[in-house]
Amino acid sequence: MKKIIIIPFLLMFLFQSVFSQNKPLIDVKKEFTFAAQQYEGMLASHPDITKFPQSTKKNGDPDNRNSAWWCSGFFGGSLWYIYEFTGEAKWKTAADKWTKAVEKEKFNKTTHDLGFMLYCPFGNGYRLTQNKDYIEPMLTGAKSLATRFNPQYGLIKSWDKHEDCEYPVIIDNMMNLEFLFWAAKESKDKSLRKIAITHADNTLKHHFRDDFSSYHVVCYQPGTKVFRKKTHQGAADSSAWARGQAWAMYGYTVMYRETKKKKYLKQAEGIAKFIINHPNLPKDKIPYWDFDAPNLPNEERDASAAAIFASAFLEMSTYSKKNKDTYFATAEQMLASLSSSAYTAKLKENNNFILKHSVGHKPANSEVNTPIVYADYYYLEALLRYKKLTNQ
């Protein structure tokens, strides 16, 4: 009689133990509830749709930018993510409003960042609503972006000029290729896909060191000849600027998704190994703004880099059989840290941004240890990916 009672109890205990080990570390519903509360405050404090939330000034005031700023699409994109989770019409209305606020940038041929500016809001909007009004702005914007590709160099030009660089290309540029892939499929224009692949291939050849870390800026001459490799936002030309490594890993993960070419996944996994095994990666997995910053451990962390990494690691976990668990666990630890009080703001504080402690441009003393709009965007994206993978 005792065995009949004890055995079921032991089985139940073992089942509960296994279940508790697999229980998600992050409650996605809780985090999105908070995010929605913060962004309700953000919307209320931003009635003017020509002033896009960016960060916080040194005096604590909100830092807003115009639609031509490279980050203008992230706020609308975040609103779409909140709509995706909640399904509430008010978020769809707000997201549509702030998406259309950047539409004029579809004609902007002075920037390589049209993927951030247009694809983040319009792309998510179209994905979630199938509103065909969102198609034309993206196709026009993709054509504008394509004008920055010069066959003589085989790359999309990042900035019109940078110091003595006539043709500078930054690792961030990898993030705008997804936009070209979408436009190529939608328009049946194969040249856009070819531009994305050519840019990614030449970046792979010239932007990386033997340990898979990336330079920030590569200066080119015609014929895809490199005459200088340097940094702009990192600690040194030879250092591993954290957000740059995140752009690189995310970018080559997208390249694998879009082409299924194994060389791109191999590159993303090489970058991942560099990050995961780096001796300067803190225990909470939120990187310093540069892995080689001069005054470690007394350097600022970069929540934005962690958010980008987390989102990329989660997607990579669906492609890699060998490292699936490692990538997922790394992303989960990053998200758990970002969702803690150490990095998540208190309600109605932080100028209504979700995350604290990001770094934009430390060498210029710009946006250092502040909230930044793209940190929130990739954090919300990562939460949605985590939700899907954990069946929440």
UniProtKB/TrEMBL annotation:
Entry keyword set: Hydrolase, Signal
Signal peptide region: 1-20
GO molecular function terms attached to this record: chondroitin hydrolase activity
GO biological process, one term: polysaccharide catabolic process
Residues annotated for substrate binding in this entry: D113, D172, T231, R243, W247
Catalytic machinery residues: D113 (nucleophile), D172 (proton donor)
Family of the protein in this entry: Belongs to the glycosyl hydrolase 88 family.
Record protein name field: Glucuronyl hydrolase
Organism taxonomic ancestry: Bacteria, Pseudomonadati, Bacteroidota, Sphingobacteriia, Sphingobacteriales
